[in-house]
Design a protein that fits this description.
The strands form 2 sheets. Strands 1-5-4-6 form a 4-stranded mixed beta sheet, sandwiched between helices. Strands 2-3 form a two-stranded antiparallel sheet. The chain has helices at about 20-30, 40-50, 55-60, 65-70, 80-85, 125-145, 165-175, 180-185, 185-200, 245-260, 280-290, 295-300, 305-320, 320-330, 335-350, 360-370, 370-385, 390-395, 400-410; strands at about 205-210, 210, 215-220, 225-230, 235-240, 265. The protein folds into 3 domains: about 20-95, 434 Repressor (Amino-terminal Domain) (Orthogonal Bundle); about 125-350, no CATH class; about 360-410, no CATH class. It is mostly helical.
Length: about 425
């Protein structure tokens, strides 16, 4: 590991057994003996604050002497550092390093260069990826213990595979019926059905707009829309639930395409973006064809029709976002590239003004946050004594037995 680079196993408190923990313990000993030189260096404190996207004035309400710490006029106590680490979602061991570490997303990062936080992933993004990796690792072991066979569709396509043929294969495997979706009254119901189909196929689908169950740590769709963790026993797709329901539909299709091509990656692409990475471009094309087959779109689209009316009508018909419809009208030759981008900017501005809904029932939401396939397996394994309650609570993100039982009840397992 390069100097200054931290991995997912980095120490989060004094007393752990990793090499980082020894550094923390040594410095803790120095602090207790009154020899705390180097602790709470201004650069590290500023780095932790900026990494979390927190304003100094906002933090000053909780840490009145923050400005003094950053000017190195006063050094914080060990307890103050621990509180500061918690407030900034920073492993406390980071604050004892000689210089700020370099955070890196632990999976291939295919987000576009225009993303403002691409070089500096937020703690919310990192913690979400780490948690999903831990869940995937648990489920992989569980699947092996159950004698489950590898899923043949994972990695069954290549970037040379025909777009239309691949989309058709995915649609058939999922049981994704374009006509069935036409009859669904809402995008929420269409998304729920899509998730159920992917879940039934063997994909762990997790949709969450916050980190774990912490409603104070909201995920930012401008930072990422989703990611896929390809694995032939435990393929996992995470969807940023802070995005609109219609946008989540496209993200799910995009990430399922990642699973099909066997490529783990973090994404922020939308239906109209022009990815520079070959994998992202291929997945975008497959997702668009999966959701809105070009042959069907051409039959439904009426040339000369008012664009606003066409967008609304076709979005309702296919249960996708109007942005996806814009992309497909362009693909069908109904809009030039310049017309597409102009209409895209106008439509994006309109969509941003639409208010979002509430979080809904906790136990229904929890099933979506961790994925029903994963939740059922973990709850059943815990009830059978194969998994410790402590480990189950950590993976599910809560600590009360009553909450665990209610979740089991909502899943029909208790």
């Amino acid at each position: 590991m390069k100097a200054g680079t931290m991995s997912r196993g980095s120490t989060r408190s004094c007393g752990n057994s990793e090499p980082m923990a020894k550094l923390v313990r040594d410095r803790c000993d120095h602090a207790e003996n009154g020899n705390d030189a180097g602790r709470g260096e201004a650069a590290l404190l500023r780095w932790a604050r900026e990494r979390a996207g927190l304003d100094a004035e906002l933090l000053a309400h909780r840490f009145p002497r923050l400005a003094d710490w950053e000017r190195q006029e006063v050094r914080p106590t060990l307890k103050q550092l621990e509180r500061f680490a918690k407030a900034t979602h920073t492993p406390v061991g980071y604050l004892f390093l000689p210089e700020p570490p370099v955070d890196r997303v632990p999976i291939p990062d295919f987000r576009t260069a225009g993303n403002r936080r691409i070089e500096h992933p937020s703690p919310d993004l990192l913690d979400t990826v780490y948690l999903c990796q831990q869940r995937q690792e648990w489920y992989r072991d569980f699947a092996r213990s159950q004698g489950e066979e590898p899923l043949r569709f994972v990695g069954s396509a290549t970037l040379a595979s025909d777009i239309e043929a691949t989309a058709t294969t995915i649609r058939r495997a999922l049981g994704f019926d374009i006509e069935e979706r036409r009859q669904m009254p809402t995008w929420t119901e269409a998304l729920r059905r899509f998730i159920e189909q992917a879940d039934a196929l063997g994909v762990l689908v997790m949709v969450n707009g916050v980190v774990g169950n912490n409603n104070y740590r909201k995920l930012d769709p401008d930072e990422f829309r989703g990611f896929a963790l390809a694995d032939n026993l435990a393929p996992l797709v995470f969807i940023n639930g802070a995005d609109t329901k219609a946008a989540q539909v496209f993200t799910l299709a995009h990430e399922v395409a990642h699973i099909w091509v066997g490529q783990t990656a973090l994404s922020d692409v939308g239906p109209v973006t022009a990815p520079t990475h070959d994998v992202e471009r291929w997945c975008n094309q497959v997702a668009a064809e999966l959701l809105v087959p070009l042959a069907v779109l051409r039959a439904e689209y009426q040339r000369g029709e008012d664009l606003r009316g066409a967008l609304d009508r076709l979005a309702r018909r296919f249960k996708v976002s109007t942005l996806v419809i814009l992309r497909r009208i362009h693909d069908a030759g109904g809009l030039t590239r310049d017309q597409l981008w102009q209409a895209y900017q106008q439509e994006l501005e309109r969509l941003r003004k639409i208010p979002k809904g509430s979080g809904g029932d906790f136990y229904l939401t929890q099933g979506a946050r961790v994925g029903k396939r994963f939740a059922r397996a973990l709850v059943a394994s815990t009830l059978e004594g194969q998994t410790l309650h402590r480990d189950a609570f950590r993976l599910l993100g809560f600590s009360k037995l009553a909450t665990f039982r209610e979740l089991g009840h909502s899943l029909g397992l208790v």
